[in-house]
Amino acid sequence: MARQYSLHRPGATPASGINYQAALNAEQYEAVSSPPGKALVIAGAGSGKTRTLTYRVAWLLDHGIDSRQVLLLTFTNKAAREMTERVRELVPHDTSDLWAGTFHSIGNRILRRHAEEIGFTRAFSILDRDDQKSLLAAAVAACEIDTKSRRFPKADVLASIYSLIENTGASLEDVIGERYPYFYDWLDEIRKVGEIYTDKKRDTNSMDFDDLLTQTVRLLEEDADVLAIYRKRFRHILVDEYQDTNSVQGRMIDLLVGESNSLMAVGDDAQSIYSWRGADMDHILGFPQRYPGSRVFTIETNYRSVPEILDLSNAAIRANTARYEKDLRSSRDAIGAKPALVPLEDPNTQAAFVAQRILELRDEGIELEEMAVLYRAHFQSMEVQMELTRRGIPFGITSGLRFFEQAHIKDIAAFLRFVTNRRDEVSFKRMAMLLPGIGGGAAEKLWQEWLRTGFAKNPEPPPKWSDILLKFKAPKKSLKHWEQLCYTLDELTPGGTFARPSEMIFSVLEGVYDEFLKANFDNYDNRRSDIEQLSQYGATFDDILDFLAQLSLMSAVDGDPSGDKSARDDEKVTLSSIHQAKGLEWKVVFLIWLTDGQFPNGRILEADDEPALEEERRLFYVALTRAKDDLYLSYPMMNPKSYTGDIITRPSRFLDDFPGDMVEEWVVGRDTGWGDEPF
Length: 679
Known about the structure:
The strands form 6 sheets. Strands 13-14-12-15-16-11-19 form a 7-stranded parallel β-sheet. It has a 6-stranded parallel β-sheet with strand order 3-2-6-7-1-8, with helices on both faces. By secondary structure, it is an alpha/beta fold. Strand 6 (236-239), helix 12 (247-257) and strand 7 (262-267) form a beta-alpha-beta unit.
């Protein structure tokens, strides 16, 4: 029998001396100190997930594992940096050989060493989004696709389509059918463009960000020697946010782990909210079957929220059937105040309540940066943005641009601005350049033709725009679209008078802009919802000039809606979609628009899609668990619609998932000077 002999590192650093049992709670310690093998750690919201991961790395190093044998996979570079820095602070061991980073960055490191094995050189270029769009545009041109009769998807949309295919393993037919059904007639052309795009990447020795994953997996699958190198090196693999892994990332983990390496995956099934970008929740739910003999640890002690908020959160998520059983327990004492349930008359009243309560809480000593307003979709923040601006309350937005600064809102406004101010060159050109075949040069020629008509200086709009504009020399490729634009302008000023703002917006959307949205933006549904919300807002105005003036006033040019230049950068309320808020926390959270059709999303309800509804409920759970001390759940009882009149809303079905005595219902009244009256 061969003799076993171990090599020791010269001058090995002594153990750190950490008292792990004292530094961790019992649940964390059990996971951190577990023996090598396959393990899943279900770490509930606010339970110290990062602490568990970093102490696990320290534990391994303290128990003789060489740092070069450890691989830490994360979803953000920031998370990787924070964890490695914490490890360095915990242990005196040399951690320079520890690999920690995002899946993409680790893929890049592997490919830089072995790219020749799959037909690239180690000096391959990584395409950013602009580079990718340029190469896709070249691929479209190479296919000689006739886009004159109808719009072909732009490069941004094509990139999203191909990315979904790569990250989910779905077929092109399935991706188009489920996400982009309006492009189904282009299926063959989209497939051909994808093939040419792939060829061009290889010809130019380039990879896009998805390739950093897919080509790494391909390398490991096709080259047994390379796979053996990394399996031998990475004996201990740790994965953060495991519930967010997609099919490619899951395959990459499987390949590196193999039969004998250790794996600790940390995540929370209750916070799996990214299926729309390819995350596969089956990875975390099916972990015991994927890795037979694995152990599952649960960490349920929450250090963030008061018991009243956690009790509500636990009850809300129990309505889901696809989940690991757990109940978060607060490490904090009860404060005696239940989360507030606040029905309000309409969206504007909801915004007024949020703004007034923010000011009251600030007067009570809670900083503005400790407060957040969360919502399901960006357009739901419009009324709140307006109300905060009116009251001079600084706010920052993590879910995107301010509502009125978004490109698609400005596009719609360009039509309205031009018909009211016929000398508005900027709006005319912006409007014209939305059409295929019209660039800066063509727009300038059309503008000069318009000036020559003399109507630019007329005090009133022409009786019929089409009688004038159809005579212009529009580019051949855009003739059909130019004709439709002309007839749409006729609808904005019927008989030379201005239609109501909401009617104008509807005409632009249906006549011209909807087709542009589909071809140019991968989040078509969200942007259309924004415009529909703008139309509802426009329904509160009779005069188009008043409406446009309000749009201008609501655009925060200097980034500070209050106009207070002395305001500290951090002295602001946060407005955020729930997706963007994951991982963040505030003392006070307002969760707005809790009505069926708004949250949960109306399309999901119409499709009767139970898995999607459960993801919506997980999103609701994520929102609840962002709050430390105070939680306000609000909804408008009426929703003004532009064309169908006011409609009575149904409170979100998620509000039925917990006992009514877990919340305190507020009745909001209006101060009339004669006492408070209910709205």
